Amino acid sequence: MGHTSSIPSKTSRRSKYSNDVDARRPKYQETIKVAQGDEPPPYSFTKSGGEGYPEFWNTTPQLPAGSRHTRVSIYPEGTHASSLNRYKDPEYLKQPLRKESREDALETLRKYDTVFIVDDSGSMQGSRWKEAKEALSGLAHIAREYDSDGLDIHFLNHSISAVSVKTSAAVDKLFDDVMPQGYTPIGEKLEELLLEYIQKLEKAQHRHDSTGNSALKRIKPVNFIVITDGSPTDDPESVIVAAARRLDSGHFPLSQVGMQFVQIGNSRQATAFLKELDDALSSKHEIRDMVDTTPYFNAKLTSEMLVKVLIGGINRRVDQRGAESVMGP
Hints:
Distance between the termini: 34 Å
Largest sheet: 6 strands, mixed
CATH topology of the domain at 99-205 and 217-329: Rossmann fold
Shape: globular
Mean pLDDT: 75
């Protein structure tokens, strides 16, 4: 956590697999003993960046003194909370999408980039790894209909990753090349990907094309989807809070960045971790609500469930009850 090494842009990582990784990051081979049942060490967070957040986040410009914030609903008037709560209903998530609903969902997802972060810790070996592989394989096939960029897939421990994935075969090959083993450093991977994206937003915010339009309009909002079966061995909460404050300081749209955590397996610790992120993060730190969670609900994860999870998170972020946009003076 807290590294400031340069991260290559997406356009520079268009090869099938990217092996660039911070030299200080422990390789998965060094933690193989976790796969054999050892418990990871307790996490100790160093407040090197001040206020308990990673150092690089503190380069964020602060809001001018005396700035006022107005909370504005940007969801269609008359929308009821019950229409959004269904995305938390296990029975709804298990049902197949109707044709009309599927078309509407894909049209919405067309406006977003989709980035998956897959837990490849030791406990994911076996059926959970196969479940994640099959769900993403099916989603890659669906994504061809709505996302010309394809899916991006990263892992917590392995440096291997894939960008612009558009076929089930590419997903299958990627998962076959990775052996789950190691810890669960969710915060570290989120920090890396969020920093890259937010820096790109901030640079584009101050550039304009020949017609005077902001370069920011050419950057798609992003959905980060974390698929995990356990609680983290580092501190993703601090990373998320720092990222939200940086986005708020830049007055970026509420829908610009979303994170959704999806649980595989029935770990009680993982469920408790997700519940805290979903229920308390925004109010506890007075930040934008950009996190949504789907705890384990005794059903196999499928590609259609992932579509519903994505849509549910997007709707929450543009709803007055679930989240509000933060506007400047």
